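Data deposition worksheet. Section B asks for the primary sequence of the deposited chain exactly as it was used as input, without tags or linkers unless they were present during the calculation. Section C holds the resulting structure in C-alpha cell form. Section D is free text for depositor observations; keep each observation to a single sentence. Incomplete worksheets are returned to the depositor.
Section A, Depositor: J.P.
Section B:
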Amino acid sequence: VIDRHDILRTAVLWENLPQPLQVVLRQVTLPVHEVALPSDTAGDDAVSALLTGCPVAIDIRRAPMVDITLAQDPGRDRWLVALRSHHLIRDHQALEILLEEVRAHLEQEEARLPEPAPYRDFVAHARLAVSAEQHQAYFARELGEVEEPTAPYGVLDTHGDGSGTGEAVVELAAEAAERLRVQARRHGVSAAAFFHLAWARVAAATTGQTHPVFGTVLLGRMDAGGTAHRTPGLYINTLPIRIDATQSVLGGLSATQRQLGELLTHEHAPLTLAQQATSLPAQSPLFTSLLNYRHSPGVASEESALTGVEFLHSHERTNYPVTVSVDDTGTGFRLSVQSGHPIDPDTVCTLLHTTVENLIGAAEQDLPTPLDRIPVLDDRQHEQLLATWNATASDVSDQTLPDLFEAQASRTPDAIALVHADHRLTYAELNARANRLAQLLAADGVGPEHLVAVCLPRSTELVVSLLAVTKTGAAYLPLDPDYPADRLTTTLADGHPTALITTSSTTDTNLGTDTGVRRIELDDPAVSELLARQTVSDYTRKGHRPAHPAYALFTSGSTGRPKGVVVPHSALNNFLHAMNHRLQLTRNDRLLAVTTIGFDIAGLELHLPLLSGATVVLADRDEVRDPQALRSLAARESVTVMQATPSLWQALAGDDVLKSVRVLVGGEALPAELARTLAANSASVTNLYGPTETTIWSTASTVTTDTPVSIGRPILNTQVYVLDAALHPVPVGVPGELYIAGSGLARGYLNRPGLTAERFVACPFGTPDGGRMYRTGDLVRWHTDGTLEYLSRTDDQVKVRGFRIELGEIETALLGQAGVAQAAALVREDVPGDKRIAAYVVPAAGAVPDTALLRTGVGAVLPEYMVPSAIVLLDALPLTANGKLDRRALPAPDRTAELEASYRAPRTPDEQLLCEAFAEVLGLDRVGIDDNFFELGGHSLLAVRLAERLRVRGVPVSVRALFQAPTPAGLASAAGDTGASFVVPANGIPAGASVLTPEMVTLAEVTEDDLERIVEAVPGGAANIADIYPLAPLQEGIFFHHLLGADEGRDVYVLPTVLGFDSRQRVDAFAGALQQVIGRHDILRTAVLWEGLSTPLQVVVREAALPVREVTLASGASGASGASGGDALALLLEACPASM
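Section C:
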C-alpha cells in the first residue's frame, strides 16, 4: 500500500529552505520494531506496555511517516501490533482507505483496486483553486468584529500535545436521534447544522460570549478532485465558524446551514488567513474548541474488516483544549469529548447532550425561542447549583444587637469586654456607659429609623457610642476622622443624621452645622455633666424591630457620589449568628480590632466578641500602621483572633506571634503564597468574602497549606448564584457574575431608590425572605467541590488594600480640578502583588496642569486610599474601534522622567541604603534623597512594607517616622538622631591564615566541611582566600543561566570586548596594567563555588593571575578595517572559549 500511494512515501523538509516542502521518495521501507513485553503483563496492560515501547516521536524528515511496533502478548496466544502514522499524512478517512487496501492485498484482491492518484493534485487544488484574496474577503466579513478569543472555561493554551486528556462518550438515545432527523428534514437543514448550533450554545455558556467562534473540521474531499474519496492523505481542514447565540433557534438552524455551505467554498483556506481577519494579536488563538462532525457508517463493522484482526486501541489527539466529535452512524449519533485539565470531559459531554435534547424540543415547538435561553444544565446539575450547594438554613433569634449584647452583659458582667491602651472596661461598665449615652440621645428624640453619625478616634468612646446608638433603636453612621473634611461634609449632607457624636479635637467645630446636625461633643463639660446624671440601667426600647436599620455605611460610588448602604438588625444578627457558628468564640478569646470604622468589616471586630463573652482589643491608628507595634500589642494582650486585609497580613505573615492566632482574612483577593504562609504559621486561617450590601461577609473557606485559595461556601441563611447575563446558572468551572440572596441583604441604598432597584433585583429561584438578590458585579466560578473561586470585577469597581473603590468617583474628582477636560482612572499591577491607582488626564485647551497640584486637589476631596499614585497627562484618551475608552492602551506611568529634574544622589551609606529601599518598594529605577515617598505613589501599607524591609537591613525606622519625614534625607537624619545606621560586618579572615574556621566567615553560614571543600578548590589553599560571601540577588539569576547552558558548553553572560592595538608591546603593557587593576578590586579576584555546598558562594582570592591566550588567525582574515577586519574579529571571538 505504501508503494501505491505517494503520500505514504513523503517526507517534510524545511531546514535551510525558504519554505517547508513535501518530498516524495520512489522507494521506502516500512520500519518494523519488535519489542519484548514484561512476562507479567496481560490484557489492557499489554496494550499499554506496547504503546510505551513505541518510539516517542516520528521523524517527519524521513519517509515513511508510518511505522509498526510489534510484540507477543505474554498473557495470550496473540501478537500485538501498534500501527503509528503522523497526522501530516492521514486523516480519519485516510486510515479507512489504508486498512481497506491492506485487506485487499491480504485477500489477493489488489487487482480490483483503482489506479492510485497523486496527492500533489490535491495540494495544487487547495492552493490555487480559490485565491487568497477571496478567502480574505470571506473571513473579513465573517470574523471582522472578533476582538477576543472564544475559550471555553477560559483555557487558552493551544500548544499542548494532547497528552493527559480524558475522554467521555455518550450515545444519543435512538428516540432522540430520530426526532432530530425529523426536525432536520422539516426545517430543511442537515443534522450537522443541529450539532453545530448546539455546540455554539455550549460555547456561549462556557465563555459568556454572545457570538462564539469555534473550529469546525471540514472533510476536504468534497471539492478536491474526483479521486479524493479513494486517496489517502490529509485532506481535512479546521476553520472557524462564528454563530450568533442570541438569535432564535429556528433562525439559527437556517443561518448555520447557510454558513456551513459557504464555508465549503473555502474549505482549503489556511487558518492563518482567518486569524488575520480579526483584531486578535498574532499569538492569541481565535478559538480553543473544535467540532468534528463525521459520517461513520462503518464504525460498527470496522473491527471485523480484517480476518484474524481485532482493533484494541485507537486514539486521536489534537492541540485544542476541547475537541467534540459527533459520529453519525446513519441511524444514531455518538457524542465524544476530549479535554484536559481543568476541563472535565464528562461535564462537557453532559452539557452538549442536554443542549441537543433541549434544542430538539425547541425546534418541535416552532416558537421564537432565543438560542441563549436553551438550558445547558440537566436536572441534577441544576439542583446542585441552586439547592444542594445553598442548603444553609438555620434558625436565628429575632432579637436586635443591643438585646444580644445586654443578655451577654448580664451573663458575664465582670468579664473584660474592651481593652484600649491602658483602659479596660468590663461588660457591666461598657453597658452602663452605653446606657447613659443612649438615654441622652433618646432625650433628644433619637429613635428607630434615625441616623446618628459617629466620628471618633479609635477609643473606648467609639465602641460605647456605637452601642449607645443601637440601644436607642437608631442606626449609626460611622465616619473615619482621617477622611478629608469635604468627604465628611458630603456624607453628612447625604445621610441627614439626627446627631453627630464627636469631640472638639477630632473634627472641625463647624462640621455638620451647615446641614443642621446637632453636634454632641463627648469632651464638652456640659455633655459630661448630662451623662453623669443618666441612669446606668438598660435603656427601655419601645417598638424596636429587627427590620429597623442597625447602621448605614457609605461606600465608593460609580457616579462620583458615595452611596449609603442601610443594613437592618435582622441582617446584622444573622451575620453575627453565622460567624459565631463558624468561629465559636468564648470568653477566653481576645480579638484584636485593627480595621477603620469606615470599612464595614469593623462590625465583626467590634460586635462579634461582645456577643460571646470575649474581649475586644482595640488597636489605635498608630499601632495599626506599625507592624512591630501591632506584634507587640498582640503578644502583650494574648490575642487569639485577628481580622485584616491581605495587604496588612503581608506585613505580619510568618511571625511567631501568630502561632496561636486564628487568622481571618478578607477585603481583597488572597494571594496563594500569602495563604500558604499564613496557614503554616497560625492556628487557623479563614478566607472571607462579601460586599457591604450583603452585610460584611457572605462566604467563608478554611485555608490550608495544600489547597487552592477559594472564597468558600455561603454562610448560614445565605444563597449564592453564579449567573450569566440572562440570569441563568452557569456550569461548574465557568466564570459568571455572583448574585447573593438570603437573610444578609441590606435594605438598600439610603435615599437612592433607583440605584437600589438596579442592584437589588428579583430572584428567580424562590428565596424564602422577600425574593431579592444582590448583583455583586464580581466574577466567580464554581469548583467541583461546591466552593467558589473569585476571579475579578465585571465593572470598574475594584479593591485596593481592602477598600472598595469606584474608579468613576476618582474620575469625577479629577474632572472637578481646574484645567482638566477628560479623565480616566484604573488600577495597575505593574509589579505583581502591588496594586496602585493610576489616573490619566487630558488637559483643557491652553491648560498645563501640574500633576502634583492635581494629586493635592483630589486628596482634598477623596480619602488617601483613593488618591492616584500617579497622574499621566495625555493629548487624548485612547479609544477602541467602538469609540469606548481603551483601558488596555493606557500607558504605564513613567515616574522616572518626573524624578530626573529634582534628583539628588545619596551622600552617605545610610542615604544610599534608604534610596535603594524606597526604589525597591515603589518599583522605581532610582530615588533621590529629596523624593517624597507618598508623592511617588507610596501609601500606608507600602510604608509598612518599607519599614519591614529597613528593619531587616538593620535600620529600625518606625512608620510614624516615615509619615513625619517621608524622604530618604529626612529619614537618614531621623535615624542618625537615634544612632541607628547600617554597619557591614567586618571580614574575619586575617591575612596569612593557614586554617579557616566558620567564625571567620561573617556574611554567610558555612560549616567545617564547606570550608574544606572551598580550600581544596582554591589554588594556594587557605592562605590565598581573602573573603567568602553569598551571591547578590542579580548574581543568583546570572548564575542560574550559567548552569542552564553548562551542559552545552555555552554561557549567555560571557561578555566579550575586542580591542585593537598598534603593537605587541602595547598589548603586553595593557595586560600588565589589567593585572594590577585585578589586584586592586576583590570582585575581579572572585570565583563562584557551589559543588558540594549548600548554597553558591563567592570566594575572593588574594592573588589571581590574568589568563592570556595567544592564537593564530588565518592569514586571509588579517587587516585592521573593512571586511577583512570583520573576518579577523569573528575568528578571534570564535577562538575564545564559549564559557568560563
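Section D:
Residues 299-304, 978-982, 1117-1124 have pLDDT under 50 and may be disordered.
The longest helix spans residues 345-365.
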